[in-house]
Amino acid sequence: MNLDQMLKIDLNRIEKEIIKIIKNDPDLPKNSDVRKSLTDMVRSGGKRLRPIMVIVGSRFGKEADENKVIQLASLLEFVHVASLIHDDIIDQSDTRRSQPALHVKTGVPTAVHIGNYMMARIVELMTVYYKDRDQILNDLSTLVTTQLCLGEYQQLNNRFNYDMTIDTYLLKTSNKTALLMATCLQQGARLAKAERLVIEQLYDFGHNLGMAFQIRDDVLDFTQSAEVLGKPSGSDLINGQATLPVLYAMEDEALAGRIRSLNVNTPIAAFEEVIEEIKTSDGIDRANALSRQYMDTAWSQIDMLKSFPAARDLEQIWYYFEERIK
Ligand code: FPP
Ligand code: MG
Q1: Which UniProt keyword terms apply here (predicted)?
Q2: Is the pTM of this model over 0.90?
Q3: C-alpha dihedral, 96 to 100 to 106 to 111, nearest 10°
Q4: If you measure from the C-alpha of residue 231 to the centroid of ligand 2, how many angstroms do you get, rounded to a whole number?
Q5: Residues with a CB atom less than 6 Å from ligand 1
Q6: pLDDT one-digit tens code per residue, 265-290
Q7: DSSP secondary structure letter of residue 101
Q8: What percentage of the chain reaches a pLDDT higher than 90?
């Protein structure tokens, strides 16, 4: 059974709501490329973890208006989808969900434009939907307009920077991934008028899961096969990203020297040799161990919410992440 089925969440409603946003957009002509590209992207699926988190968050509140929860869940999934358009351009990644990435189909300038348009439209919709809910509006627009971009910028700004500290890595990981997950649970709960402490606990739980998830994603970039990844193993390093396994591996001085010699002009074969060494270094195990610590903390946070029946839903989400993280 999928996570959505276990949690009794109908993901079709999310997809329909997002398609509705696109269809009802008065500025998108019916047969325009933008409209078609956006619809295709939304329909191409994805795990829909973020909307699931919004819905589960709302189950901790006193009064959840189901339609409003679906609307919020859809907006936040839209944010995620829009960010991936830019991410694939920045990462020079040609596939997404086993399909050609948007920029491959439309060319980079059009895809950049579509990503910008979507983000601008989402922020506009938020100001309409939540005009009477200052706190929600403030949290959402800050996150969407600032934190995601900041995370991606921190990543970009540190390309081929092998002196990046682990703290900087964790900060950009928080900005680009964990904050959005935390915000989904937080805002779902806030919309349903949950208590302040509960909202904070859900936020922390989501943040810890998000950190574990991204660290593990960075490990998988080394350990999974090219077939599973849909890109060469070690692509992050080839793109200049010193992710956590690399930062840990650099504590071995001899290996650090070889990693430092890699730059934008290095032939792929030389990258491949170093990638093999990183795979067998303790950097992989140490990064996995940190991911586990975040998971353990998240588990202990469920205990604090045990008086709510929806704590069981958090457990299901936790187990879903655990399967990925094992
Ligand atoms: C995936 O990371 C990317 C993100 C989690 C966020 C990217 C955010 C932006 C590009 C900012 C977008 C902002 C605007 C205004 C459009 P990854 O590359 O590690 O994961 P992947 O393997 O799924 O590509
Ligand atoms: Mg990427």
Answers
A1: Magnesium, Metal-binding, Transferase
A2: yes
A3: 10
A4: 11
A5: 82-83, 86-87, 90-91, 93, 115, 119, 148-149, 152, 176-177, 217
A6: 999 999 999 999 999 999 999 999 99
A7: -
A8: 73
